[in-house]
Amino acid sequence: MCEANAYLLKGDKEEKVFENVDRLQLHEGGLLLEDIFGRRLIINARIKELALVDHKIILEEIDSE
Amino acid sequence: MCEANAYLLKGDKEEKVFENVDRLQLHEGGLLLEDIFGRRLIINARIKELALVDHKIILEEIDSE
């Protein structure tokens, strides 16, 4: 399976926020992530980087300005 | 391997623009894609959707306004 884990950048650290992500869509200015079991996470962030062979999705928070 | 293919939305059609994508990064308002062989594509687009189990990255063009 080619799911990935989602990490949110906090300063220079990566904090894992969701595992086994299959689908990701834009959602009301942020993102909707869905894992391989159909569980969902809505997060006020955008994609900064993908590293698919490493199974990583790196997210960064959106400033609510 | 868990690379994916990148498709650019053209109306309601998906046109494959790059295969075997491993890494993707934000780059000067658009995206820098790198495949598993180290080849790179810079594209004026953003991620609309991921479907990792289906090995798909769906991109949409950025209006140059």
Walkthrough of the structure:
Chain A has 65 residues and is mainly beta. Chain A has one domain (4-61). Chain A is built from no helices and six strands. Chain A has a six-stranded mixed sheet with strand order 4-3-2-1-6-5, with no helix packed on it. In chain A, a hairpin with a 2-residue loop joins strand 2 and strand 3 (30-35). The first copy, chain A, starts with a strand and ends with a strand. The relative contact order of chain A is 0.29. Chains A and B meet through strand 2 and strand 5 of A and strand 2 and strand 5 of B.
In short:
Chains A, B: It comes from Syntrophaceticus schinkii. Two copies of one chain form a homodimer. Chain A is mainly β and 65 residues long.
What is the topology?
The structure is a homodimer of 65-residue chains.
Chain A: E1 4-10, E2 13-27, E3 30-35, E4 40-43, E5 45-51, E6 56-61
Parallel strand pairs in A: 1-6
Antiparallel strand pairs in A: 1-2, 2-3, 3-4, 5-6
What are the main properties of this structure?
RNA-binding protein (chains A, B), CooT (chains A, B), homodimer, 65 residues, mainly beta
Q: Could you list the spans of chain A in which at least 5 consecutive residues all have pLDDT below 50?
A: none
Q: Approximately how much beta-strand content do the residues of chain A carry? A: over 45%
Largest beta sheet: strand ordering of chain A = 4-3-2-1-6-5
Number of domains of chain A: 1
The helix/strand order of chain A is EEEEEE
Main sheet properties of chain A: 6 strands, mixed
Rg value of chain A: 11 Å
Q: Give me the oligomer status.
A: homodimer
Structural class of chain A: mainly beta
Q: So how many helices of chain A?
A: 0
| Broad shape of chain A | globular
Record field, number of beta strands of chain A = 6
Tell me the span between the first and last alpha carbons of chain A.
38 Å
Write down the overall mean pLDDT of chain A.
94
Query: Helical residue percent of chain A?
Result: under 10%
| Most residues in contact, chain pair and counts | A-B, 20 and 20 residues
